[in-house]
Amino acid sequence: MTEPMRRRLLHETRATGFALQCVLGLLPLLAGCRQSLDPPVHPILAAYRGAYSHESEHETDPVAIRIETDVSKPAEARPEAFRAAAAAIDSLVGAGPEGEEPPGVSPPAAETGVKQKWLSWSGLDAQALETQLIGAESLPSDAFLAYAAHPAGAAAVCLINHSDRKVTTCVRIRLPRGVYKIERLRFSPSASIAEHSPETVPARYAPIAPSNIRLDPLEGCDLAAAGSVSKTLTLDPGEACVYRYRDVALHSWQAWCEVQEALHGLQGEAPGPVRRLRRMLSEVSGGLGGLTGGKRHSDTNVRLGRIHHLLLGTAQAESLARNYQTRHVFNIASGQNLMQALVSLSSDLADTSATMLGLSPRIDVTYDRDTPASLGSGTVTSDALVTIRLENTGSRSVGLVKMGLDASTLPSGARCEPADLAFFGTLHPGQTVQAEFHVRRLPAEGLTEERCAADISYFIASVPAHLRPHAWF
Hints:
Layout: H1 3-30, H2 41-60, E1 63-74, H3 79-92, H4 107-122, E2 127-134, E3 144-150, E4 154-161, E5 167-175, E6 178-187, E7 205-207, E8 213-223, E9 227-235, E10 240-247, H5 248-266, H6 271-282, H7 300-326, H8 332-357, E11 359-368, E12 373-374, E13 380-392, E14 398-405, E15 415-417, E16 422-427, E17 432-442, E18 454-460, E19 463-467
Parallel strand pairs: 1-5
Antiparallel strand pairs: 1-2, 2-3, 3-4, 4-10, 5-9, 6-8, 6-10, 7-11, 11-13, 12-13, 13-17, 14-16, 14-18, 15-17, 18-19
Helix pairs in contact: 5-6, 5-8, 6-7, 7-8
């Protein structure tokens, strides 16, 4: 650098520093206070930058809280805590955007139904569990609420963030041996939960369920012995969530016992058909040994093979029982009890298989704002978009994956497009598949949970399995 250039650069630097000193000195005077110009410029800027950075971090950094509970440690009844948790979640039900409602769903009826449904789904009103909060000291005592319960064959944990800060939660729960299907129901005071929304759909589609409520399937666990499971989630101010841990292997055992009881009740009126059904089920009863792991049943592949063999036999028995019911071999009430028990057994066995494999099914429903139309009779109809997806979070591939809507459950007069199942072949670990179906000409009552079920099938151990998730309404 030449001497003239060096002198010019030094002059400009001094001039800039003097200008900054003048500005920083005048600002406090304009505010009505005095400040000397003696302190140098750079420490002032550094202190200002540090204070600003510290304040910004304090406002945006979430509070980290760990919640620990143990199913084997029941707590004394906590009616006040339960009522506070239930009231907080009920206040969030129906807190979505006002405006156009789904076809045939009135806000008061929908709100009442969801309030009753979330509590029945979670079982949070069961035996309370001891709950420990770690890291909540920086929040007021009533700013964060955690409540846990132990319904039969399951566990539930409720978290509510009453504070004005984000809270990063880690729920650690100790569970007994079993195969646990884990789901999380999330409630938000805002119009929607964007980070958990499905793939982008056309703007004209809107949720049928309240848009601030979302059911998320999570990766389950297969515990060969008692152990702990952890799940994390960041709750925004005003948000709440409920985790449900359902032992689908235990529920499969219970459903098997219910089938046997139903058959025993039919023995007097139809001994021949009952004998045939019992023989069919006894041939696959060895699959019950694959429901839980341990020293005797440690090979997951062997267990899956037994469970799917039991699934196949149960499906055959279900088909035969339906045939008997159609021919009025059984009286109506007894036949319905048997069918319900067989359907529950098939569903719980399929959930056990999916949990062990790490398969997470999901179904989302939105309705089309632009298609409400009136028929000649004055009946209002609409269209809906149903999105079905399946994620493989496990370590095994499943073959011949097919997804579609169970057309037999759709309301009368509605049709599904396309009518055929979507075929995806093999689903490898880490992959997710998705299919969309349009339901045309929905009647005024719209869709309900019972009227909207997916049919997801796959093969493992050369035996098919069917998952039938329902949308949350």
